Amino acid sequence: MIKAYATFEAGGELKPFEYDPGPLGPQDVEIDVEHCGICHSDLSMLNDDWGMSAFPLVPGHEVIGTIAKAGDEVTSLNIGDRVGLGWHAAYCQTCPSCLSGDHNLCSSAQRTIVGRHGGFAEQVRAHATSVVALPDGVDPQSAGPLFCGGITVFNPLVQFDLKPTARVAVIGIGGLGHMALQFLEAWGCEVTAFTSSDAKRAEALELGAQHIISSRDVKAIEAAAGSFDLVISTVNVKLDWNAFLGTLRPRGRLHFVGATLEPLDLSVFPLLMGQRSVSGSPVGSPGTIATMLEFAARHDIKPVIETFPFDQVNDAMERLKSGQARYRIVLTK
Q1: What pTM, to 2 d.p., does this model score?
Q2: Are residues 187 and 162 in contact, defined by beta-carbon separation less than 8 angstroms?
Q3: pLDDT digits (tens, 9 = 90+) for 21-43
Q4: Which of 133, 215, 228, 272 has its CA 20 to 30 A from that of 255?
């Protein structure tokens, strides 16, 4: 039996829960959980905001732990290896996306907390392909958020072959944005932070931004016209996207990694005349996650975290709901 924390209804409190995981699959591993980050997606699933939650629900998809059991066909990981598990727990391994290395685009991928039990638990299981070993130099306690928020903002740098000479802006300096600033600064880019919070200006500069622009200052945004090769939006709220489109250079890209639920209101002519692009991306593949971890170790990039013990999981969720966390919350043993 695996001991965990689960909610039994949408919006409900997390309570102790035990379940029988059944026999371990030949290509699966069981991880003894040491730390588990809390992502806003966990809250969305807990509240059934996306209409795909199944109860009882065990959240948690930013898992760090050690391999306790491995199936007979697992060759990539060994008992005792310290590893991480993110949004995906298994892939089909046969579709064109998987065969080309884009496992994160697999239409049959199994998500760690959708139809499965996640990492708010003593153990969690996943297919070995979706589990990535932690390299030396990566702090285990703070590494969990790299497996969701971190890879979400790192993935575009790889996918678009971003040049170190690029001028890049990040909209929103929170759970995603504060990691984006660190990655971009280490990548070599000239980095600008768009933030609505005066309190975050000094932090943004410490995290890697060279310039700060208020996302509420219409004139300041207009003054940045034609400045950026890439603008990454990490927010989940509606903004004046045409204003940000205007900050792009010709061939520039407005890229979404934050889950904005409202439709985008965009004028086509700025896209046509400047050959600009609008795009989005999810988390990255296991291969890209491994690359990100090596990059983070080399440049000492760490999510800024607050920690709570597992038995205070409801307090941790309330902290997340408050919007005051700086910047990610991690449950730890």
Answers
A1: 0.96
A2: yes
A3: 999 999 999 999 999 999 999 99
A4: 133
